[in-house]
Every structure is written in structure tokens, then in C-alpha cells.
Amino acid sequence: MKIYLAGPDVFLPDALVIGRRKADICSRHGVRGLYPLDNSVDLAAGAASRAIFAGNEAMMDAADAIIANLTPFRGHGADPGTVYELGYMAGRRKLCLGYSNDPSTYAERVCRSTDVKAADGRLVDPQGLTVEDFGLSDNLMMIHALERYGCALVTPRQRPDDVWHDLAAFETCVRLAAERL
User: Fold this and answer.
1) How far is CA 173 from the centre of its chain?
2) What pLDDT was estimated at residue 45?
3) How far is CA 83 from the centre of its chain?
4) CB neighbours (10 Å) of residue 86?
5) From CA 177, how far away is CA 30, in angstroms rounded?
6) Ramachandran class of 93: left when φ > 0, alpha when ψ lies in -120 to 50, beta otherwise
7) Which of 9, 76, 122, 153 yields a CA-CA distance of 20 to 30 A from 98?
8) 51 near 45, Cβ under 8 Å?
9) All residues at 6 or more sequence positions from 9 whose CB lies less than 8 Å from its CB, including other chains
10) pLDDT digits over 80-132, tens only?
């Protein structure tokens, strides 16, 4: 069984090392991890972004499942590319699992970084825009897609010191996927 390993891990300085660690964890559980950086792409080529897109889409098509790293990335929520990949796989009714190494809710993260006020029974930011507050780790569409097409988002009890290198929640997802596949 093959699992597409989605997440912003590909942007880390040691992205290839993380990919190998994740693939090794998959192997220990009897599944094969497909890491986006396994695709060979000439980044200097004019159509590099299209080649990355096509390679990742081909990997997702070949995979039986996805494990998405939904740890907040460059903001309050998950990496948008990873969210697209999760939606792509859910749309194909493939097994969807995800984890976040930040166990706080989306609303908690927004409240920590900006002035949020209660107004008319909802939370609003300084621009008057509603802050989604359903007690979920991220946007409801992602969280409920995981529940519908796989299992609930896996989070640690406490945020690890190094959210990008702690793979305990990831390994839980691999174990769950291996049991389901």
C-alpha cells in the first residue's frame, strides 16, 4: 500500500532527511511512503512549477491514502498546498489522515496574534471579519473531511518543542493507515 506524504516539510532546510525519516517509519509499518521531493524536477526550468504539480498529482493518483501534516505553517492554519492535496484525495474517496503538532484551536491561535473581540455572538478580527470558532484545530472543511474519509485529526497533548521534526503524531497516522489498508 502507498501513502502520499503531504505537508510543508518540503520547505524545511533538511527536507530530504525528514522525507527519508517518514519513509522509514512507513516501511516499518509495512506501507510505502511517497514523498513529494522524490520527484525529480529541474527547478531552473521554465515550467518547474507545472512539473512539481504534475509529479505530485501523479503520486497522489498512485497512492491509496494521504497523511497530511496540517501543523500551522506561516500563519494561523495549515499550508494551502497541503490543504489542496487533502481535498484532492478526499475528492477521490481515498483514505485521508492528518496530524498537527499544534494542539491549540484555530481561534486560540488567531486570538494570540491579533485583537479579537466578541460581537453578536461571534468572534471578529480587527477588520470585522468572523473568526471561525467551532473548537477545531483548523478550518471545519479539513477537519470533517478527515473524519469522513479517514479518522480524526491526530494531535499531541502538548505542543512539541520542535513541531517540524517531532514525528510521533505522524507515526500514529501511519499505524492507523496500515491498520485500515
Assistant:
1) 11
2) 83
3) 7
4) 27
5) 10
6) left
7) 122
8) yes
9) 15, 18, 19, 22, 69, 164
10) 999 999 999 999 999 999 999 999 999 999 999 999 999 999 999 999 999 99
